[in-house]
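Sequence in, structure out. First:
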Amino acid sequence: VHPSIANFILIEFPASGAHTAAKADDFLMARGLILRGVGAYGLPQCLRLSVGTEEANHLVVEALADFMRSK
């Protein structure tokens, strides 16, 4: 995660392998969690997480932890 003073967090993933931003996006979307891809801004390895409610933020963090544990 990149340092942020905005209303979103920029999450960087490996450029290749099992845990890319595209694969994370698919994993999260399958669970009804929508982050924004930022490839159009030259950051194809990143997803943007807008700050939401505490409950929504926890759901995303838990889902990302599950994704990173997956193979």
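Second:
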Amino acid sequence: MGYNFKKYGKDLVVENTAIIKRPNLVEVGNHVCIDVGVYLATESVIGDYVHIAPYTCIIGGAKSKLIMEDFSGVAAGSKIICGTDDFTKGMLNPQIPNQYKESKYDTVTFEKYSCVGVNCVVMPGVTLGEGSVVGAGSVITKDTKPWTVYVGSPAKEVGERDKSKIIEYGKILKNGTIWK
């Protein structure tokens, strides 16, 4: 694999074009795929049965964090912004010394069963509630409610998900009925 992760489980696939800047700050569970062209530059805790799809960009630096709980996912081309420069104060970009800029470091959390669609943007500090999903091309600036569907820019609530089958299937997978 070539990465010196802080911790990792079984059935882990990290495609060879993925770039993980700080693998020593990354914990990965079981049955995880970090796909082609993924760029990951934050501290991360990734649960079981997680997929980070092709060309996803996860930024914010070592002081920011991504948490992806079990059965969560990010679709292709999405941007997860865990930290950023404060655009209202100081200069901008990572090459500027810290005394001349203001930075915001935060955590983005995907609770169990939550996912974002293709080409979504998730802003710093957002928590995607359990089972919430966000449609393609959406921008998520606020926390989402559990088991709710969101679309748009900024993302707005448009419906609800039926959680009964999803939770049932999750229990089957976690108990090892499918994977041994």
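Remark: The first strand starts at residue 7 and ends at 8.
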